[in-house]
Amino acid sequence: MALSLKRTHCDSESIDHYAQGVNGHSQKSRKVKESEEQSDVEDIDINLDDESDEESLSSPRQTSSNNTGALEAGTIERVEVVNFMCHQYLKIDLGSKVNFVIGHNGSGKSAILSAITVALGAKANATNRGRNLSALIREDANAALVAVHITNKGPDAYRHDVYGDKIIVERKILKDGVGNYHIRSSSGKIISTKREELTAILDHMVIQVDNQLVILTQDMAREFLNSSSPNEKYKLFMRGTQLAELAEDYAVVRETLDTMAATLKRKAQSLPDLQRKAKESRERYETLKTLDSIDEKIEELSSELSWSQIIFKEKELKSAQDDVIRAETIVNDTKAKLAITQNKIGVFDQEKKEIQEELQECKANYAPSLAKKKEVEDKKIDLETKRSEIKNDINDLNTRVRSSKATIKSYEEKIAKSTELEANSQSLRSSLGSKLVEMEAQKLEKDDQIRGCKEELDGLYKIKETQDIKQKEIKQSLDQVKTTIFYQRKKIEELLAQKSNRLRAYGSNIPEVLTEIERETRWKRQPVGPLGRFVKLKYEEYRETMEILLGKFLNAFLVEHYEDRQLLMSILERNRMGDAMVIVANYDLFDYSHGEPDEKYLTILRALDIEDEWVKRQLIIGCGIEKILLIAERVDAEIVMDNGGPRNVKSCYTAKAQKVGAAQGRRLESLNRYRGPQRFKKEIDSDISEAEEELKLSNDKHYEIVQRKRTCDQEMDTIFKNIQLTMHKQSKLEKEVRSLSLEIIQTRDKIEAEQPVDVQVLIDEKRTLEQNIERLKAQFSDLKRQDVEIVAQLNDLLGLIQEFERSDEEYLKQLEIFRKRILETDDSKQEIMSMLNNARDNYNKEKQRLNVKRSLVQQLEATVKEWTARVREEWPIRVETERTPAEIQRNIEHEETRLQVGQESLGCTMEEAHIDAKEKIQIYEEAKKTMRMLDGLRKYLIKSLDDRMFRWSEFRMFITISARAHFTYYLHKRGDSGYLKFRHDTEKLIVRVSTSDQFQKGSTRHKDSKSLSGGEKSYSQISLLLAMWQGIASPIFCLDEFDVYMDAVNRKQSMRILMDTALEQSESQYIFITPQDASNMKPGPLVTVHRLNDPNRRPAPGAE
Predict the structure, then answer these.
(1) CA-CA distance, 1022 to 221, in Å (whole number)?
(2) What are the beta bridge partners of residue 102?
(3) Phi then psi for 669, rounded to 5 degrees?
């Protein structure tokens, strides 16, 4: 490693001027670039209008091969945060070399460094700003986002063809501490969301986020610069240079090699024993070779046995092929009978059509007679109505005549009495008249009050009616909510039961039922069920449709015998599940493929994974699942089901539980929603949460309705009270009015009694009534004449109606004849239809039998072919034999007995001895080979580890020499001297410094860093940090608040050394954070200054 010591001179004039800039006394012209919208940061280009001899802090010295001296891959181009720490939104574009971030305390400078570490995968405690990531979210926000743009150019770029010129790493932080990564390309496309990809990027670009020397946070920098001990400095040096990590890895390797040596030593002790066993097995095998002749004969017999089995199976195949030919003949005969029966149905349809045509002709012929009959009946009704009116008029005339005669008689009596009365009392009539007027006025007043009460009652009754309707609505709503709460609670209980045991989705006591079924021993064939246990759904979007269509079949049980059904029903009833369906069916695994539609259509059968073949057949029989289509969208389903749908399709359903299509035209029918337990759903936690949320909403609604009911009842009580008060008032007024009315009547009677009668008036009234009676008699005669005429017309109409009724009887008899003929035709057709169904069933059964026999032939052909191929592999020459396999087997057993007698003396068979010898020799050779290989590998690894430890020691020596030299070099730049003492045995790093003041006083003693002043200590620690950085390969270095304990002079010198180091000796990117001013800093292509806005301080409560 080549070391270069350079020294730069700084005159006192420029230092004094810089100190004035730090204290804010000099006014500089600044050029400020506008930042992004809603950003808190400003990138500031600063030009110093000072004398030409003033030294600039951004010296343009470069040693890199490119123009700027910066890396093309691995540096940070941009940092962007949203709702992170104190920033609502911040975007800052970093320069490729040196970046200064300045701002007052609280402006969020350190948040930029925290954002970099968090975005690149560090934990929250690495920032020293919180125990968890949620602590970094801005107050009043629910989530935060940090994004870092990493350059990705040049030959060292990471997957440049995928990511482009930059890699964007985004990390989202949620309030609960959970977050995720989005790693994007330069175009913004998400490439990965995995942490492993971020780790690969950081490893490729050598970005060490967790290296405390590479990224010094505010607290870490303060501790390093002021209070770190020699041990802490040494540990930090070892960790920062990754020497400690390498040492730990080598220690683990050394321990593994020691374990490996012990294991090899233990294994080597078993080799002689393995060698002895291999030798014994070889000798035993050689002895058994003498029994080869018997073994060869057994081999010949085995060949004959194998070929005899094939010959026997070929005979079975020939018999099965003959059965197929006979079955095909039966199927053809059945098909012919089916065609004949279908033709007969057409004859009956034609006959029924002819009868219906005759019936329509008969109805058409009789239609005019029906119309005429209706006309006569309508006329009869009109005449009867008119006669009834005449009778009412006659009765009215009789009543009026009798009334007039009675009135004439009363007038005659009054005329007789009036002549006898002569005296009257004028004063009494006058008094009674005044009293009458007064009482009538009171009555009118009370009548007005009564009308007011009635109007008030009408208004109250209308309000009561409205309130009644409102009460009924509230009661209905309350009942509905109570019912809903009941079923929701029941649903939650069922879901919780299902969660503990998924079988309870098929019934609350299904686990107990299955336990009893397993315990029962009297089954002829153990029941299968519930059927839903053996059914799994492949397509989740059809779950609700499947629940509706399969319905109770999923909860059903399947038995083969009626005795088993009775036994199962008793178990179900004991467990309160007597309503469960029990299907009795033969164990028939028939072929159903001929009834399926084209393979391009998804049927219920194809959408299900059914484990049990018997269950599958019963679902095909009971539900027709092989002929029901499933199509996700209604429009697609209507297109498929147009004109009746494809062949072998019975119906079609969508993912939204809609039935599409009918026999004629298009038809859409929505199925009733399924509200039972979810039998196809694996995870029900979401259903439980949803049900609990619905129950909570229902309880809230119940409380609201109860409050409304209570308010409505109170309003109704008030209305009832008002009605009772008004009715009581009205009753009292009506009683008073009745009393006044009675008094008025009595007073009028008294007045009339005292009033003299006018006799001439009575005589005139009598004469008028007598004339009126004569007029009424004339009207009576006219009405009587009209009644006689109407009666004659009615008699004529009755004759016509009787004739029509006789015609109706004949017409109804004809209709009855037609009806009987149609029924006879329908009965005959139904009989033929029954015969057709039987013929079709017979055809299907015979066809199924034919398919089974064909399948058996195919299986036998495959078996013969497979057996022949396998036998030819071992015995390629066919052996023709007439002996049965059993006879050949007896010969083989006889020869094997002879061989066994010879082998018993050795304790094993020839094959066993061969296998044993081969295995033990192989075990010994492999063990010996493995021991040699592992021992060679161990020695090689030991040598490799020793070489690596030697190189590690050299690396440590070179890095410590470099650190010492650079530390001395950086102190010389200030006019000081010092050295670093590495004590590797005690793990200490001791810093000794002698300042320029000591030189002036003639002292050459080096002091410990604790005895230095604050500025001197900070500068020496900065020099130590820069010396350590020389031994670390990293594309970025970050340092936070390194100058808080420095005065203007030390800060100026520290700035200069940082700048010189960054610009001269490295291609890395540097980010320095300081709360001090940077007005004397001259930005350029290699130096960028970022100033953060001052924080917004809210006034304390009560402050003016």
Answers:
(1) 10
(2) 1074, 1091
(3) -135, 120
Residues 6+ apart with CB under 8 A from 405: 773
What whole-number distance in Å separates Cα of residue 218 and Cα of residue 297? Answer: 92
**Exposure of 501 by Cβ count < 10 A (0-12 exposed, 13-18 middle, 19+ buried)?**
exposed
For the chain, the first-to-last Cα distance in angstroms comes to: 65
> Residue range 420-429: average pLDDT?
52
Neighbour count for residue 989 (Cβ, 10 Å): 24
Find the helix or strand (DSSP H, E) in which 19 lies. helix 12-22
Instruction: Kindly write down the DSSP assignment for every residue of 199-233, as one continuous string.
Output: HHHHHHHT--TT-TTTEE-HHHHHHHHHT--HHHH
Of 466, 343, 232, which Cα lies nearest the Cα of 839?
343
Q: What is the DSSP string of 88-134?
A: EEEEEEPPSSEEEEE--TTSSHHHHHHHHHHHTT--GGGGTS-SSGG
At 653 the three-state DSSP class reads: strand
User: What's the whole-number mean pLDDT along residues 1070-1089?
Assistant: 78
**Integer Cα distance of 534 and 557 in angstroms:** 11
Rounded to an integer, what distance in angstroms lies between the CA atom of residue 325 and that of residue 4?
103
Structure tokens given for 757: 């009668």
- Give the pair of three-digit tokens for residue 289: 């070779």
- In which element (H, E) is residue 45 found? strand 41-46
Element (H, E) at 146: strand 143-152
Calpha distance 10→593 (Å, rounded):
97
Amino acid at 897: T
Judge whether 30 and 44 are in contact, CB under 8 Å.
Answer: yes
Tell me which amino acid residue 1010 is: K
What are the pLDDT digits (tens) for 266-280?
877 777 888 787 777
Helix/strand/coil for 478: helix
Q: How far apart are CA 1093 and CA 41, in angstroms?
A: 6
3-class SS of residue 507 = coil
> Residue 1069 — φ and ψ, nearest 5°?
-100, 140
Rg (CA), the chain: 57
Return d(Cα 1092, Cα 106) in angstroms, integer. Answer: 10
Q: Which residue has the tokens 């049927």?
A: 603
What backbone torsions phi and psi does residue 1014 show, to the nearest 5 degrees?
A: -60, -45
Tokens of residue 676, six digits: 């039972």
Share of the chain above pLDDT 90, in %: 6
Q: For 521-531, write each residue's pLDDT tens digit.
A: 889 889 998 98
Name the residue with higher pLDDT: 11 or 950.
Answer: 950
Tokens matching residue 467: 């309130």
Whole-angstrom distance, CA of residue 336 vs CA of residue 12: 123
Which H or E run includes 982?
strand 977-983
**pTM greater than 0.85 (yes/no):** no
Give every strand in the sheet of 30-33, ordered side by side.
Answer: 30-33, 41-46, 1087-1092, 98-102, 1069-1074, 1036-1040, 215-216
The token pair that represents 421 in the structure block: 């009365």
Model pLDDT, residue 288: 64
Q: Quickly count helices (H) and strands (E) in the chain.
A: 23, 24
DSSP 738: H
The helix (run of H) or strand (run of E) holding residue 964 is helix 910-972
Cis peptide before 1035 (omega within 30 of 0): no
Q: What is the largest CA-CA distance in the chain?
A: 178
Element (H, E) at 1090: strand 1087-1092
Q: What are phi and psi of 96, to 5 degrees?
A: -80, -15
**DSSP codes of every residue in 277-299:** HHHHHHHHHHHHGGGHHHHHHHH
Non-local CB neighbours of 143 within 8 Å, separated by 6+ positions = 83, 137, 172, 173, 174, 175
Higher pLDDT, 1032 or 412: 1032
Kindly list the distances between the CA atom of residue 706 and the CA atoms of 464, 473, 474, 692, 1043, in Å, as whole numbers in the listed order: 20, 12, 8, 21, 70
In whole angstroms, how far apart are CA 566 and each of 473, 526, 559, 563?
A: 50, 13, 10, 5
